[in-house]
Design goal:
154 residues, N-utilizing Substance Protein B Homolog, Chain A
Length: 154
Amino acid sequence: MGTPRDIRRLAFQALYQIDARGTDDLPSILESLNPAGAFTEDERGRALALALAAFENRGAADAEMLVLAPTWPAHRQPAVDRAVLRLAHYEMVVGRAPPKVVVNEAVELAKEFSTDKAPAFVNGLLDKVLKRVLAERSVSAVEPVAGAETEGGA
C-alpha cells in the first residue's frame, strides 16, 4: 500500500513528465508510474490527479518563486527542481498536507533526483512559502466570521 510519501513521489514523477510532454498522453504517464507493479490503480490515479492539480496551479507557483528568487525564473530552473517546487507549493497552498512535512519531503526529492545544490535552493524557497502560508493560516484562524455577532451584542 502506498504511503502519502509514495503518492507524493509518484505525483512528482508525473508532474515532471507533464511539464515535459504536456497532458496529451496521460495514459502513458499513468502507466509509467508503476514499472514494478508496486502501486494500485487508485494510488497511481491519486498521484496523477495531484500532479495535474499542481500543473494547473503552476502559474501561481512560478509567480511566487519568481518573487522569491528573481534571478531563477521557472524557465531557468532545472525541470526536476521546478517540478518539486510546483508540487510543494500546491500542497502547501491548498492545505493538502502539513506544510512542514511538504517542505521536508520536497527537500528529500531534490536530494534524490537533482543536483547537490538543489536541496538548499528548494529548502530556501519553500521555507519562505511555508512562513507565508503559516502566517496566513494564523491570521485567518483569528479573524471573526463575517456577520458573526461580536462579544457584547454589537
